[in-house]
Amino acid sequence: MTDQTAPRDSAHQELVGEVRAHTRRELAQVGLRLARSLTQRFVADSEGAPATGLGDPARDAVLPALAFAERFARELPPALQPPPAAHPLLRLAGLARARQSAALFEGLLLLACLPEAHEGFATLCRLFHPAGLPMPTGTLALHWLESESAAGARAVPFGVRDAVEDLLHYSPFASMGLIRLVGSGPWHGRSLQAGPGVWEALMARPPQLDNGELVGGYAQVPGLDDWLALPAVTQAIVALRRALPCQIMLVGGDAAMRVTRVRALLGAAAVVAVRTRSDGVEADTRGSACVDGYAAAFMHQACLWLEARNDEAAGDSASERLSARLAAALPSLPELPLITSGHSEQQSPLLGLPLIRLPVQALAPVARRRLWQWLLPQLGEQANVLAARYPIDPDDARDVVRDLGLRQSLSPQPLVLEEVGECIRARTTWSSRPGIQRVLPRAGWPALLLPDSARRQLQRAVRRVLQQITVLDDWGFAQGRGERRGVRMLFFGTPGTGKTLAAEVVARALGVDMLVVDLASLVSKWIGETEKNLAAVFDIAERSRALLLFDEADALFAKRTETQDAHDRYANLETAYLLQRLERYEGVAVLTTNLRSNLDNAFARRFEFIVEFPEPDAAAREALWRLHLPAGAPLADDVSLPELAAWYALSGAQIKSAALAAAFLAAAAACRIHQRHFLLAVENEFDKAGRAHPGFPPHTVWPAEDDADDLAPITPQAR
Fold first, then answer.
1. Are strands 273-277 and 303-307 parallel, antiparallel or unpaired?
2. Is 193 helix (H, G, I), strand (E, B) or coil?
């Protein structure tokens, strides 16, 4: 994707030069006219009294400043050719309601810009400013314009004064803030300052705004071809290209998705926009920031883009104040194309403009496949897998490809699929919230000891995720009905039987992170808070492309009771909301419970896979003991894992805990790990579980004290 904001070809540079040259010539003529009027009134007329409202500079200080204006004008004679068609001053004359006063306002605007043009003009303005500021005042403008008016035809009394006051207070130029009156007191005693972006526009530079910037479009956005071809989007592109007054409202998705689509619109229409953000701006000052952006957009021949990145609802009091502020400030302004982008469906149209509403959604799977094929042609055969694993947007995918390119330049090895996942995880922003734990999956299939039937179901779930595009899109099983995507699984079994481990194995097989969600901590007694907490969980999961694990789902998915009071009704609404979000989630969602009977039977139909995790039998327990004892563990000769497996019915989690505890017992005694250490650790596991200990095998020997071999330090040879 190529940014079109600042092209650097020779034609563009030539146009920039023409705009700047014309601006300087116009400024030179205004400076010359101002200097001659001041010379005539306050220097040549030695009997004239000091000007009311102006400073009273010494004659020796004024003469060099006036001479500078003469020299500046001689170096830049008036232009013989008309200004370039793109010059911002031509836009002033184009205002239908202000054509008669456009020439007068142009002079005032250039006067306000004189201090920016050269420090010599700043010095001249400082000499005549009552407070010694390097800015022209309303009084200076009046003395200049009234002097020229008096030298010409018969002037209407106070005509110039009224015209200037009208322009600075009541004209469309004033509403737009192209010239600001700075300071306090009567208007004619205040300083004239060019509005935001005005000077930059006159010099063909991007505007310098506190909460905005000039942005262009993307020349090409892979993956958005289908979206750009939608009828409403096509209409919006034509409206932007023709600069028709309208509001183009982008609704939905997250902030990054909306930004990408706005930039794609601008690129397709070959226009630029002044982007004004509401982030970090006080609610009461958002209207002023938007008006600043409007002024910059007008001068730069751009559209205005009001961006709400924080997804605030359009119906809140702040947004209502913003709409009222805009309606009050901009009713008589030239109508520009206006782009608004936000998450809320409740956004209201602004300023009574014709509306084009554009929905923003995640890329369709087929579009994601084309995106990866375009960006990573060397992994083209695995584009289906990439599209299924990572529901990513074009901007994010572009950044990931840049990261991969850096890796390739530093270590020129063939690109593998796993590297894509590593780069995506590195760029995934993570916002920690109570009740959510991010887990980087490390366990693979060998770490999972399950019955063959359960293992096959997990492997089928992984394959189902990776083959969704083939089945639903290429083979047509979606049938245009928006067939739900993703995989929802229910794991049930007693604690410690490997449900969480199995979810981790699936996450690693898919190359994504795992988010472990404690539903009990998300459930709130306050109405609506539970849904808000759940929405945050799914938003994080969708941004991080993670596997969602809802541990102990009984907290919200237990059998629904009869609706006897308001609390029951709201509890059922919370459950319905979670089910709705599960249906829409395109990743893998896993719910765990200790007893399948704890869940409402109606929920079973919503899961693609229901996997039972039984308690391990003796053979499985022996395999678990061996799995949790590393090769470097110094086992004594009396250790009998088959005996431990046959004698004690423990879960996989308990066996892992007991193996670790036995190792610490042996380390504390500075000896190898004996059978008695395992027996003591197992006894502790039964005590923790509150279960009756079945006793020790009858041949167990409990020495009074460790023998010399046990007390000897463990050496590498012993291991």
1. parallel
2. strand
- Which DSSP helix (H) or strand (E) runs through 75? helix 59-75
First to last CA, the chain: 58
Predicted confidence (pLDDT) per residue in 54-102, tens digit = 767 777 888 899 999 999 999 988 877 788 888 999 888 776 556 668 8
198 and 220 part of one domain: no
Query: Phi and psi (nearest 5°) for 128?
Result: -105, 10
Domain check: are 590 and 623 in the same one?
no
R_g (Cα) of the chain, nearest Å: 37
Phi, psi of 213 (to 5 degrees): -160, 160
Q: Are residues 605 and 660 in the same domain?
A: no
Domain of residue 597, residue span: 445-612
SS3 439: strand
Helix (H, G, I), strand (E, B) or coil at 591: strand
303: its two tokens: 């559209």
Strand partners, 517: 436, 550
Residue 475 CB coordination number (10 Å):
10
pLDDT tens string 358-374? 999 888 889 999 999 99
- Amino acid identity of residue 519, one-letter, is L
CA 602 from centroid of its chain's CA atoms: 37
Residue after which a domain boundary falls, among 331, 359, 387: 359
Count of the separate structural domains present in the chain:
5
- The reported pLDDT for the residue numbered 558 is 58
Average pLDDT over residues 536-562: 76
> Which of 163, 162, 167, 166 minimizes the C-alpha distance to 179?
167
SS3 548: strand
Cα distance between residue 296 and residue 247, in whole Å: 18
Q: How confident is the model at residue 606 (pLDDT cuts 50, 70, 90)?
A: confident
Higher pLDDT, 636 or 151: 636
- In 152-249, which residue ranges form alpha helices assigned H by DSSP? 159-169, 172-176, 198-202, 225-228, 231-241
**Three-state secondary structure of 357-411:** EEECCCCCHHHHHHHHHHHCHHHHHHHHHHHHHCCCCHHHHHHHHHHHHHHHHHC
d(CA 104, CA 403): 55
Same domain, 51 and 141: yes
Distance between CA 55 and CA 123 in Å, rounded?
13
Residue 90 has which token pair?
């031509």
d(C-alpha 255, C-alpha 40), whole Å: 59
Q: What is the pLDDT of residues 265-290, one digit of tens each?
A: 999 999 999 998 876 666 566 777 78
On average, the pLDDT of the chain sits at: 84
